[in-house]
Amino acid sequence: MSNSPDREPEAHDIQQHFELFLKHTNEGVWDWLDLDIPEQWWSPRFYELIGYRDQEIDSSLDTFQRLLHPDDAPQTMQALQTALDKTDHFERNFRLRVKGGAYRWFRGQAHVLRNQAGQAVRMTGSLSDIHERILLEAELEGTRLQAFRAREVKQSFLAMMSHEVRTPLSAILGFSEILLDTSQNAETRDAANTIHSNGQYLLDTFNDFLDLSRIEDGQFDLEIQDCCPLTVIENVQSLIARKAEQKGLTFDVHLANPLPDSIKSNPIRLKQILLNLIGAAINNTSEGNIRLTIEKSLTGESSRQLIFTIQNPGTGLNTEAINQIFAGRQLADLTSPAYAGGLGLSLSLARHLVRLLGGDIALSHESDSGSNITFSIITGTSSEIIPQQISFSQRLNEHKSSRSSFGVLRKRCRIMLVEDGIYNQMLIHYLLTKAGGMMTLVENGQQAVDQLTSAQQAEDEINELFDLILMDIQMPVLDGYAATERIREMGFTNPIIALTANVMPGDREKCLQAGCDEYLTKPLDRKKLIQTINLLIKPIPKHMLQTR
């Protein structure tokens, strides 16, 4: 008899197709034909998955329950019952004891069939071996948790190191600056200059390390704002000129064409790039002149660039090693001569910052004229006002002549300093007393709270007792966060400034959330400290001027 396409499939054909399907599928199939009895039907593949031959053990709900891992049995059996009672669908991961006694992970799925009355009459499902997948997921999760813990340990270590390094550096840099400003003895000034230069080098290297760590962790925020490129360059020259002079070098700046009055960039990071790159050139040059050339380049109607070129007359820069850094390759051996003096950290950070500002960086070497480091930044579509070219030396001289050794507070304000470090107490007390402040020192947050509490008990107005509080954050007994919160609860409304060596991501926000009005980091910038106080303190009432 011929096989006509119109011929109805016979029962034995359907059976053959079904058996062929069961033979080649990777899943085991089970069928609970009568829910009133525990016996079920398991396919040969079902038996194979749990390590048995067909019919080697009873195929029943009781057998399935005995094979379940004790930790998985209650939830799995409850899920089966819930499917029978109301959900119609069962799907769950569980462990079964395979032949030999070991447990393996499986995934079970099933669907419930019901009669016209809505009663469950049959349940058919499948079994899949997911053991290797579960183990891989567990391994990946373990790796993720390990990486997370390592990151937490790293962040805690960096936070601790930042505090421990910055706290003594605040005193070292602060007192060396005082000696440079006040001493007339040449030997003393030379010694103070050496202390300050090395302290600043340590701070810069540590800051570079922290910034690189933040970039690697994706926690580096870069705010783009309107800024004046000429101001940034002047600030860089005022800092670099002295460093170059100490090595017997000269440093000058050349503008290839007029600069825009304003660009869209980040002035702090642009300054950091220039200081790192020019500093590297100075450190690796023994004689001659280092020149910074700036050129405004139009690369399109709406896209603008500033191009900076640092010309180094010497041959001390390792072109191959540095271009590896600029190409984004991982630093080789930071202890090798090619990266001596923190060169690898400073240049790697400069490269990252240039990329974040939308530009690129490279180093070229010419046997006759030394080497050139060239980088660019995107400047956005800011103002096209071109200022008149002014001599940098003239601008610098005006800047220096207008700067006094110590800033002055705009009123003789009463300041409480909450600081546990004796050397930072001495430094801040000296600076602010010279600036015209009247200082009260306490050693921790609890002493600050106690002093204000005593004043309230004596019915004194605490807002008239102190115009401002300078609050260290990491202190014994009661830290700066808790002390600030308690002082605010007491009704103190005058400014509180956090002075802290905590500079990790989120530290500023924590201080402001606790009730501080501003956040300044150690080592202290004395000029910024006095400027911040002047911005925050209230003016002297007119009726009080006559009595002072």
Automatic annotation (TrEMBL):
<dbReference type="Pfam" id="PF02518">
    <property type="entry name" value="HATPase_c"/>
</dbReference>
<dbReference type="InterPro" id="IPR011006">
    <property type="entry name" value="CheY-like_superfamily"/>
</dbReference>
<protein>
    <recommendedName>
        <fullName>histidine kinase</fullName>
        <ecNumber>2.7.13.3</ecNumber>
    </recommendedName>
</protein>
<feature type="domain" description="PAC">
    <location>
        <begin position="90"/>
        <end position="142"/>
    </location>
</feature>
<dbReference type="InterPro" id="IPR003594">
    <property type="entry name" value="HATPase_dom"/>
</dbReference>
<dbReference type="InterPro" id="IPR000700">
    <property type="entry name" value="PAS-assoc_C"/>
</dbReference>
<feature type="domain" description="Histidine kinase">
    <location>
        <begin position="160"/>
        <end position="381"/>
    </location>
</feature>
<dbReference type="InterPro" id="IPR036890">
    <property type="entry name" value="HATPase_C_sf"/>
</dbReference>
<dbReference type="Pfam" id="PF08447">
    <property type="entry name" value="PAS_3"/>
</dbReference>
<dbReference type="InterPro" id="IPR001789">
    <property type="entry name" value="Sig_transdc_resp-reg_receiver"/>
</dbReference>
<dbReference type="Pfam" id="PF00072">
    <property type="entry name" value="Response_reg"/>
</dbReference>
<dbReference type="InterPro" id="IPR000014">
    <property type="entry name" value="PAS"/>
</dbReference>
<dbReference type="Pfam" id="PF00512">
    <property type="entry name" value="HisKA"/>
</dbReference>
<dbReference type="InterPro" id="IPR001610">
    <property type="entry name" value="PAC"/>
</dbReference>
<dbReference type="InterPro" id="IPR005467">
    <property type="entry name" value="His_kinase_dom"/>
</dbReference>
<dbReference type="InterPro" id="IPR013655">
    <property type="entry name" value="PAS_fold_3"/>
</dbReference>
<feature type="domain" description="Response regulatory">
    <location>
        <begin position="414"/>
        <end position="537"/>
    </location>
</feature>
<dbReference type="InterPro" id="IPR003661">
    <property type="entry name" value="HisK_dim/P_dom"/>
</dbReference>
<keyword id="KW-0597">Phosphoprotein</keyword>
<dbReference type="GO" id="GO:0000155">
    <property type="term" value="F:phosphorelay sensor kinase activity"/>
</dbReference>
<keyword id="KW-0808">Transferase</keyword>
<dbReference type="InterPro" id="IPR036097">
    <property type="entry name" value="HisK_dim/P_sf"/>
</dbReference>
<dbReference type="InterPro" id="IPR035965">
    <property type="entry name" value="PAS-like_dom_sf"/>
</dbReference>
<feature type="modified residue" description="4-aspartylphosphate">
    <location>
        <position position="472"/>
    </location>
</feature>
<keyword id="KW-0902">Two-component regulatory system</keyword>
<feature type="domain" description="PAS">
    <location>
        <begin position="42"/>
        <end position="87"/>
    </location>
</feature>
